[in-house]
Automatic annotation (TrEMBL):
UniProt-annotated stretches for the region Disordered: 1-29
Limits of the PX domain: 47-162
The name this protein goes by in its record: PX domain-containing protein
Listed GO MF terms: phosphatidylinositol binding
Pfam families: PX
């Protein structure tokens, strides 16, 4: 079962001090006054070029027997802060509460990556960094989220101040942040909650958003299938590489004990399989990045849109009792605008990922064919 970023306490490899996980009911405004005026800040209050935000390599920290990872965040090449994964989770949940109609990309879940690599490998953190950076770039490019106090606090506050803010806010573990349960198998990609009964349609907005919801469910299922196929492709290619390396070594060992005429042919075979393995390694590196970064990012973007649509339905049904302070008119306007942006990015990502995968496979096939042609010519010429 694929878990969500909200299950971070049970999934994260980093060790958290149990005493620091105490939360209280959120307030309308933070009671803590920021001390930013007393600090030199390089992060602007209004970001014009969000492409200048970047995350550095994951850095490991130790506190006694405990350890955890942080990611340095840069703007225009200047280091701003270091942030842990759980702090990204907090930021996204704050957006879900404050801007319920705005779409935010889902964060890279542990199980979303662990299907390809374990958290003991450095590439795991490379993939996580990519996902978190994409999340921040989209937030920084969003007209509302980029101007929010939550985002500026996240990008400016020192560790102590941010931890105080986190303790003052309610830990989101239900529908409002991310889905509490959804399965990764193709037959049940979206959880039963997502496929629950449709709310009674009351106006044109309900019809529009539920149509979008149905379409995105189908798209998400396709993306889950693509991720599964990509995982299988990476696994199979890795096996082929190991097989060719083993064959190369076997032919090389056989060559040492055979007569000169046969030994020369075995040498050609050993070199051929070695060259094929090198070609496959080059393609393997490209394909695993495509699967672990771009394909997963495409899926997470769709998941974020689905979550926002589900959140709207929940608020619409329960608003009189719980969400009376939320304007459905404003929520609908935000969601409709973000869905338009999502549709544009969806088209670009879909074409980009598909085209790159085709190109990588064609390149590998052509190079392997060339290796075999050269080997054949050597044997004939010999």
């Amino acid at each position: 079962m694929r878990r969500t970023p909200n299950d971070i306490e049970s999934l994260e490899e980093e060790k958290i001090n149990p005493g620091s996980g105490s939360y209280t009911k959120p307030r309308n405004r933070y009671s803590l006054e920021s001390d930013l005026s007393n600090r030199s800040q390089s992060f602007p209050s209004n970001i014009q070029d969000y492409q200048d935000i970047a995350l550095g390599e994951a850095q490991k920290h130790r506190e006694g027997r405990e350890s955890y990872y942080t990611f340095p965040i840069y703007h225009n090449g200047t280091l701003l802060v270091h942030r842990r994964y759980r702090e990204f989770v907090w930021l996204r949940n704050q957006f879900a509460e404050t801007f319920p109609g705005c779409i935010t990309t889902a964060l890279p879940e542990k199980e979303g990556i662990i299907g390809y690599w374990t958290n003991q490998e450095s590439i795991f953190y490379t993939m996580r960094r990519y996902g978190l950076e994409k999340f921040l770039k989209r937030v920084a490019g969003h007209p509302k989220l980029s101007q929010s106090q939550e985002f500026l606090f996240f990008m400016r506050d020192d560790e102590a101040n941010l931890q105080i803010r986190m303790k003052e806010s309610l830990a989101k573990k239900g529908w409002i942040g991310t889905f509490s349960d959804f399965k990764s198998s193709v037959s049940s990609t979206i959880s039963s909650y997502m496929y629950g009964e449709q709310p009674i349609l009351q106006d044109e907005a309900d019809v529009f958003f539920n149509t979008q919801r149905t379409e995105l469910r189908g798209l998400y299922q396709q993306q889950e299938l693509l991720c599964s196929q990509g995982n299988e492709m990476v696994t199979n290619l890795d096996a082929e590489i190991n097989s060719n390396i083993a064959l190369s070594k076997a032919y090389e060992n056989m060559r040492k004990v055979e007569k000169e005429q046969i030994a020369e042919k075995l040498k050609i075979l050993a070199e051929t399989h070695h060259q094929i393995a090198e070609v496959q390694k080059e393609s393997f590196d490209k394909i695993k990045l495509l699967v672990g970064q771009d394909l997963e990012d495409y899926r997470r973007l769709t998941l974020g849109a689905l979550e926002t649509l589900e959140r709207r339905n929940k608020i619409k049904i329960e608003k009189p009792e719980i969400y009376a302070n939320i304007s459905m008119r404003d929520l609908n306007a935000d969601l409709k605008k973000d869905l338009e942006q999502f549709q544009q990015e969806k088209i670009f990502l879909g074409k980009s990922v598909s085209n790159q995968l085709i190109i990588y496979k064609q390149e590998m096939t052509e190079k392997i064919s060339e290796v075999w042609r050269e080997a054949y010519n050597r044997v004939i010429g010999w």
